[in-house]
Specification:
244 residues, alpha/beta, Rossmann fold, OB fold (Dihydrolipoamide Acetyltransferase, E2P), 2 domains, 5-stranded parallel β-sheet, 5-stranded antiparallel β-sheet, 15 strands, elongated
Length: 244
């Protein structure tokens, strides 16, 4: 039997490998450093169980789970409890919050064993209700790094967001902050006031001041801080539907 672990932090992978070696010394373990590498290994080696971190560059653990469907039992391991509801919606067998104990990992593995070669079942209302109690789906504040410090930032203060690879620029009422995350992951933490308008941009609808056509179906949005953001053809219809 083979277990795939995917986490972009090497110390987390090493800790998980040690714990799995204690629980299942006869199992093979393969490693991925991000979601895309995980997808490649899944297709090449067909592991029996997946243990996925949620926050990973290139492709998140949730995106990997959505891509593979119910072909493999999935255990999520993460420091962020706000994704519990989404994890159960993609049929995860368990959701472990760091730091977790060897005993708690063993419980998750037993659940995964019971799901091998069996189709996933739709999460019950009771299970989803339990997940909702773990944490609010949209937290009113997030922690952002500024220098060596972490500061609480109100979600309501964010005006628009720009993607820069594995990092985001959060443009807020109090200035610009850098967050290590993917756009899809970060938007899942926000409420319906925010919408993606381009591969590289998302905006808070309340902060849009002007919409101008620029070229072949593309538009330009002027934000409340005076900056302009691209609205691409791909996201155009969803954007305009919010104003009807």
């Amino acid at each position: 039997m083979t277990i795939l672990i995917a986490d972009d932090e090497a110390p987390s992978r090493e800790k998980l490998k040690r714990m799995l070696s204690q629980l299942a010394p006869d199992h093979g373990i393969i490693e991925a450093r991000d979601g895309l590498e995980a997808m490649e290994l899944i297709e090449q080696q067909k592991p029996d169980i997946l243990v996925l971190d949620i926050h990973m560059p290139e492709m998140t653990g949730l995106e990997v789970a959505l891509e593979i469907g119910d072909r493999f039992p999935v255990i999520f391991v993460t420091a962020y409890d706000e994704y519990a509801i989404r994890a159960f919606e993609v049929f995860a067998v368990d959701y472990l919050l760091k730091p977790y104990s060897l005993q708690r990992l063993d419980v998750a593995m037993q659940r995964a064993y019971s799901r091998i070669d069996k189709p996933a079942t739709i999460p019950s209302k009771e299970l989803l209700a339990l997940a909702k109690n773990l944490s609010p789906q949209h937290a009113p504040r997030i922690l952002v790094r500024t220098g060596e410090r972490m500061l609480p930032l109100s979600i309501s203060s964010i005006n628009w967001i720009a993607s820069m690879g594995n990092y985001l620029e959060l443009h807020t009422e109090d200035g610009k902050f850098i967050e290590r995350d993917t756009m899809n992951n970060f938007l899942s933490r926000l409420d319906s006031r925010f919408i993606r308008v381009h591969r590289s941009f998302s905006v808070k609808l309340d902060e849009v001041r002007k919409v101008e056509a620029v070229f072949k179906g593309d538009y330009q949005l002027t934000m409340s801080d005076g900056n302009t953001v691209k609205l691409s053809r791909y996201y155009r219809d969803a954007f305009f539907s919010r104003f009807r």
